[in-house]
Specification:
heterodimer; A: about 500 residues; globular; B: mainly alpha; elongated
């Protein structure tokens, strides 16, 4: 048994606890501990990615209880990829935060670590109830992080976010309860076997529970009827928190991919791939409404929050198509959209700091102190997020469009994605011209550009370029991921071999 | 017993949803609490309703499933923490926005 599997959960947990215990210690010490723990996740998740790429499923049985009886952690290519995405995003967000944003409220670093622990745990667990527990850990940390910095706007957005997610948790428990009541197991691989073997009498209840889960994950992933909390929450969060939240919607998406390829996947009889029929129209509508929201947004932060919704729609389309190529394309796009969205949220804060009371509102404001640096970064980020060549967003969208053969689906997806990209470009160029060109003559001299912050923002955005240069290895990795997800026999072996590796 | 149990769940959930839709923070918190009671009872019932049986396999022909009880305990602990958090947040919201409406402002008349 490889103990490194549980380290992405243990490191943030111990770091977070240490930071809570040492709450009275100096800010410098807390920053060091937090940075050390987060940066440690980078080599660790790199190693786990290498381990997962060997093609063998890594299973860690907590307490050495064999698979269907105890809780297992499961590392496959998908979870390893998402762990790396989270570690990279978390490191840059924290690098940004230690330049001063962490002092705007209490216990920022402890909460940040617990947030990372919850996210990593959700990606690693192989048990449905354990997934619920990690969801709650990441949620309660995110509630507090969202309120970090205080102010009426954050409290307003936070209250909606908290109440909605509490209702979501109730639905999650109902769905898990029904699934357990029928299949008698909580282990996802075991549940997949039981669902495949379930009689026709149980199919209706299992289907209802499965769709309840879709509602819960949809609330986290923020797709169409359930995304209304997102723009306000993301737009009002502090910059490093908003950047970290770029991966939160991906937790919902990860859960959708996991549950609907494994439990309700190809083998589930009458319930096979039942989510796809729902996800397809939802994906297209989410994309459309996200773009409309982006066009209508009154502030740069609001615009970026709607672009997160757009990326959710694009990703869901890839998941809903259901083929391996489309899933691989969606995963490629997922890596790109998480990092670039995070970088843009950091950039929006850098811009807003130089505009005083106008903040990031898209109205005429004072001239920026560093229009060239920030303007070029904005130009770069806008190209990346809109999906124009030569940056990574273009490749993600191209792969997605090419994964469809000509037919009705392509007829629907192509115009929505392409017109959506065009409108995104329009929204971003309108925002950019207002922020950088429609400015007054006077500058605010209060805001100095902090090079630490600039480095974090630049680092995250330039990953888009890195993704272009490393497109070939990443693409072969995500293609292997997609085919591994559809190779259900591999997951069955966890239960059928019954024992530990 | 099933009928009484089901009716209890139904009434709890219906009351919870009604309170949740009142859009004032205190009724909303109460509504969330009622819903979480209903969910906990529901989880408990997923181990099947039996009275007077042991939770040990092999002691008798029928046994009560202990796992849902463990799940309910976990859910209660988490629900308790979340309720405490949302109460504090609701108080903070009243302090910051001077209203107990969940939107942070009084609806237009």
């Amino acid at each position: 048994m490889n103990h490194s599997l549980i380290l992405p959960i243990l490191i943030p947990m111990f770091a977070g606890s240490l930071l809570l215990l040492g709450a009275g210690l100096s800010q410098r010490f807390k920053r060091c501990v937090s940075l050390l723990a987060t940066l440690l996740l980078l080599p660790l998740s790199g190693y786990l990615l290498w381990l997962a790429d060997q093609g063998v499923l890594q299973v860690y049985a907590a307490g050495n209880w064999a698979a269907p009886f105890g809780i297992i952690l499961l590392l496959d290519r998908l979870s390893a990829l998402l762990l790396l995405v989270t570690a990279v995003l978390g490191s840059f967000a924290l690098l940004y935060a230690v330049r001063g944003d962490d002092e705007r409220g209490q216990s920022f670093h402890a909460l940040f670590q617990f947030q990372l622990m919850g996210i990593n745990g959700a990606f690693l667990t192989g048990d449905l109830f354990n997934l619920f527990v990690f969801f709650e850990i990441l949620l309660i940390a995110s509630y507090s992080l969202l309120l970090h910095g205080g102010g009426a706007d954050r409290v307003r957005a936070g209250l909606h976010y908290v109440v909605l997610n509490l209702v979501g948790s109730a639905f999650f428990l109902l769905a898990v309860g029904v699934l357990y009541g029928i299949t008698g197991t909580l282990n996802m691989a075991d549940m997949a076997i039981r669902v495949a073997a379930a009689g026709p009498d149980d199919a209706a209840l299992l289907g209802a529970a499965g769709l309840l889960l879709l509602v819960v994950f949809g609330l986290k992933a923020a797709f169409l009827p359930l995304y209304f909390w997102l723009p306000k929450a993301y737009a009002s969060a502090t910059a490093p928190v908003a950047a970290l939240f770029a991966v939160m919607t991906k937790v919902g998406l990860y859960s959708i991919i996991r549950v609907y390829t494994l439990i309700f996947g190809d083998d589930a009889g009458t319930l096979a791939n039942m989510a796809n029929d729902w996800l397809w129209p939802i994906a297209l509508l989410t994309l459309t409404l996200g773009v409309i929201g982006a066009l209508a947004a009154g502030s740069l932060h609001g615009l970026l929050a709607y672009l997160v919704v757009v990326s959710v729609g694009t990703l869901l389309a890839g998941v809903a198509i259901g083929t391996e190529q489309a899933l691989a394309a969606a995963l490629f796009y997922l890596v790109h959209s998480t990092w670039v969205a995070g970088g843009l949220f950091l950039l929006a804060d850098l811009i807003a700091r130089q505009r005083g009371v106008k903040h990031s509102l898209l109205i005429q404001g004072p001239a920026l102190q560093n229009p060239h640096i920030l303007g070029s970064l904005f130009f770069f980020g806008a190209i990346a997020v809109a999906g124009l060549p030569p940056l990574s967003g273009f490749f993600g969208k191209l792969l997605l469009l090419r994964s469809l053969d000509p037919g009705l689906e392509a007829l629907l997806l192509w115009p929505v994605v392409l017109v959506g990209s065009l409108l995104t470009v329009i929204a971003l160029s309108r925002a950019g011209s207002t922020l950088f060109w429609r400015v007054g003559v006077s500058q605010l001299d209060s805001a100095e550009l902090d090079y630490g912050r600039l480095f974090a923002c630049l680092g995250l955005l330039s990953l888009s370029l890195l993704l272009v240069f490393c497109a070939a290895p990443l693409l072969s990795y995500v293609e292997a991921t997609a085919s591994q997800l559809h190779d259900l026999a591999l997951y069955r072996q966890i239960i059928e071999s019954g024992a530990l590796p | 017993m099933e009928a009484i149990f089901a009716a209890t769940l139904g009434i709890l959930t219906a009351s919870g949803v009604y309170l949740l839709l009142r859009a004032r923070t205190f009724p909303v918190v109460l509504g969330l609490t009622l819903i979480s009671y209903a969910v906990n009872l529901f989880l408990f019932a997923m181990g099947r309703l039996q009275t007077g049986v042991v939770t040990v396999i092999g002691e008798g022909a029928v046994y009560a499933d202990p796992l849902p009880q463990a799940l309910v305990l976990t859910a209660i602990v988490i629900g308790f923490a979340m309720t405490a958090f949302v109460v504090v947040l609701a108080l903070r919201s009243v302090g910051e926005t001077q209203t107990d409406h969940v939107d942070g402002q009084e609806p237009a008349q």
